[in-house]
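Long-time lurker. I teach an intro course on protein structure, and each term I like to show students one example going from raw sequence to a predicted 3D structure in C-alpha cell notation. This year I'd like something fresh instead of my usual example. Would anyone be willing to generate the C-alpha cells for the chain below so I can use it in lecture? Attribution to the forum is fine with me.
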Amino acid sequence: MENKSFVALDLETTGLDFEKDEIIEVALVRFENGVESESVDYLVKPVNAQLRPFIENLTGIYNADIENAEPFAAVAQKIYSFIGDLPIVAHNAMFDSKFLKQTFAKVGISFENHPVWDSLTVSRIAYQNVPNHRLDTLVQELGIERSRAHRALPDAIACGELFVMAIDKIQNSDPWLVDALARIARGSDWSLLWKESEPASELPAYRLPDVPLEDVPVKERAPRVSEFFKEGGLLSTKIENYQVRHNQQDFASVVERNMHKGGLCVLEAPTGSGKSLAYLASAACKAVSGERVVISTATRALQEQLWKKDIPLVKGLFDGKLKPAVLKGRENYLCLRKFEEVLNAPANLLLPDERDSFMAIVPWVFSTETGDVNECNSFSQVRNRVLWSKISSSAKSCLGEKCPHYIKCPAMAAKRRAMNSNLLLVNHSLFLADMSVDFALLPLYEHIVFDEAHKLPQVSRQAFGRTVSFFALRNIVKTLVPSRGPSGLNSDGLLSEIQVRIPATETELLALCVNLSETLMETEKALHRFFMKIGKKLAKQKNQRNGFTYVSGIMAEYDADPAAFLEQGQNALKLSENLGASLAAQKPLAGLLSDLNGRMTELSRFLQDFEFLVKAGREDWTFFMEDPFNPHTIKLHACPLEASSPWKEKFYPWIKSATFTSATLSVQGDLTYYVQKMGMPLDGKKAPFLRVYSDSTSKDDRCSMIVAKYLPKPSVPEYNDAVNETLCAVLPEVEENTMVLFTSISAMMKAQAALAPIFAERNKLLLCQHVDGALDGLVAMFRKSRGACLLGCQSLWEGVDFPGDALKLLVIPKLPFPNPVDPLVAGIVNKLKAEGKNAFKEFFVPEAYMELRQGLGRLIRSDEDSGKVLILDNRVVLEHYGKTFVRIWNNRQTVVNSVEEIMSALK
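-- Reply from a regular --
Happy to contribute to a lecture. Here you go:
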C-alpha cells in the first residue's frame, strides 16, 4: 500500500433518508502516513428536519444542542478545505459520502468525483472471524480506544485507526491477496491504494478437502431411549446436574415408538421442555441401527443450535457410530469455477457496486473447508443476492464432471457428506424443494422429524406458490447486458466478456451477442410497459378492489396484453440457444456459456411463471397483485388455497415415519386444526398419533395477565385513538422494558407518533419497527436497555427472544385475527363459505389463537423468565369466543376498567 494519508469522516444525521433527512454533526480527522494529525468537529443546525427522540437517544445530540449551531451552508467551505485532495475514509462509506456529496451539492459545491475508501470493506477483508463488522463490534474486538459511541468525532477517530490497522494487516499478509485486490480494484478508487505487482503472485491452493463416498454404515445395535433419560442414564454423563423430566422421557419414547411402528406423529411440547434432545436421542438410535433419519427446522438459529450444541452432545454417546451431516440448498455453496471466472475478469463480470463485497469474500474462498457462505461473516448473501448468484453453485450452470474443480466442488462434497451420513440436518425450504422435484435432492431416508413444525403450512404455501416482479427479471438481465453509467452503456456483463473472447474476425458471432443483448434489454422494457399499463388502469378505477385480486386473467380484467413481453422473452431464449450452439466447440468459453445457459434457464422459468400468473383462472388458487401502481415494485402472486395437496399426494404415502413437533400446534389443547391444515387423515390406520405436553412448571405464577375491559371494541372508529390514549398514559410510567405487538403497521405508526413526544420529554427510549432502522439493530439496542419501549408487528410476533430482564411487560392492543382483506385470507374464506362452513369459527379463531400463543411466547421462554401481559382488546372477556383465548392462560386474568386500575395491576 502506497498511501496512508486520508481524512476519516463520520456524520450524525436526523435519519437515513437522503432526500428528507439532514446532517447534524460532521467530524473530520486527518491522518498523515497512518498517524492522526488534526481534527475538526461541527454541530450543524438542520434547515427543516427535527431530531426524533430515537436520534437524540442514539447520538446524545438534542434539539437544544443544535439550536444555536450554524447551518451547513456556513461551514461547508471549511469542511471542503479541510478535506482538500485527500481520500475520504468512512465506515459504511456509501452512506456518509453520499449524504455529504448531496449536502455539498445543495450549497453549490461539487464533490462527485472525490475518492472514497470504506473502512467497512477493509475490515471485512482483514478480520474475517469477528462476529460482525459494525464499528462498535470492531472497536471492542480489536481494542481500539473510543471515548463514546455514536458521536461523530470519537467514531471518526476510531474509523481512521481501524482503517490503518486493517490495511497494514492486509499488506503484511500473503502477496497474492494484495495482487487479487489490485486486480479487482482496477478503475475504482481502490486502485489508488493497491497496486498490482509484476509478475502477479500465484494464488494459493484451496483448503477444501476431498470427500469420497463411503461404504454404507454397518447396522449397529442401539440402546433404548429410556437409557438416556433415566436417573444416572447416558445423558447424565454428558450434562452436568442433569435432571430427569417425565415429559422429556415420554416424548422420546413416543418418537422412538413412532419410528419403530411407522406412521405420522404430531407432538406439542413447550419451549424449554427438552424436546430437541428427546427427538435427537430417538433419531440417533434409529440412525445407528441402519435407517437414515432427517431432522428439518424452520430457522437458521435452531439449525445452528442443533448442529453446534445438541448433535455433538448426542454423537459423543455413540462411539463414532452416529454420522451426522448438515445439507443446505445448493445455492448456499460456492462454485470455484464461477469464482475464478469473476476473479480473472472483474471489469466485465462485476458491477461497480459489487467490487467491495467481492473483495471481502476473496480471503474466505481460500480458507473455507466447506464453501458454505453462511460461515462467512464478511459477506451477506441477503444483501448481495445478484453477486452471490454469479459465484454460487447452481445445477443450471454446472459443468458436472467436466469441471476442473469437480473433485473439490463444495456442493458435491456437501452432497457426498449427506450420502455418507445416517443423521441428516436440513431446513424446511430444502425439504420442500426436494418434494417439488420428486425427492431428487436428498439421499434416501426412512424417517424425518420436523421441528418448528408450526411453520410448515406457511412455508409450504410459499414453496408451492409463484411470484414474478420487475426486479426479479432485472436481476437476471443485468448480469448479462451492459449496465448504464453516467455517459451511457458500460462495457460490463456476461455477454460483454463472451464478446471479448470471440475473435474480431467472427463478425456473425459478435453480431449475435449484440443482438441477444439488445433483445434482453427490450424484454425488460416490454415487462415495464406491461406493468405500467396495469397501474394506469387501476388508477382510473374509483372503487379499487381490496388486495387487487383477479380471477379471469390480466388481459381480461386490466386490458394489459402480455404477448409482447412473452414474445421478446422467447426471442431471447432462441438467440441464446443459437449462440451456445455456434460456440459449443470453443472449450475456453465452456464455463461462460454454461453460465449464460443458467441465466437463460432462469429466464425460461420466469416466463413460465409469468404466463401462469397472467392467465389465472384456477379455482384452487388465489391470484393478486402487490404494489401495482409502481412498475418497478409491482409483484404478481399466485398462492394455492390448500398447501397440503403435495403432502397428501407425494409424502405421506411413502414415508416410513414422520414426527411433527413445535411449542405451538394446538388450539385449546386440540391438534385437529393443525392436522387438517397439513392434510393428514383424521381417522383410519394412517391417522397420526397426537399428544400435547403441558408445562412441567406452571407459568401462571410467573406471568400475570391483565385485560382492559373499558376500551371500545376494535370494530368501532374511535378504538385506535382510545388505545393510544391508554398507551400514552401507561407506557411512560413503566420502568421496565416493554414491547407492544401490533397487528398492523398503520396502527403501530399512529401509536409511535402519539408516544414519541412523551417519551422524549421523559428522556426515555422509544424504538419502533419500520421507523428507527433495521430490526436486528433495534432488538439488540432493546435488549441492552432498561426502561425502554419497543413497538413492533409481524416479524416480532415470533422467533425473537428477550431473556430475563430484557422484557418484563408485553402489550397486545388487538387480537391477531387474520386480515380479511388479505387476498389469501379472502380466498380461503370464500372457499370455506362455498363448502358451507363457518369461516370465523373454523379459520379466524384458530389462526388468531395460534398467533397469540406465539406472541405470548416472547415473554416467557424459560423457567427463569417472568413478567406481565396487558391485553387491550375487550373481546377476550366480552365475546363468547373470548373463552377460547382465555384458556391459553387458564382463565386467570385481572380485568381492569380504567387506566388507574391498569397502573395498580402493573405494580
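Some talking points for your students: The CA atoms of residues 431 and 849 lie 27 Å apart. The first helix runs from residue 53 to 59.
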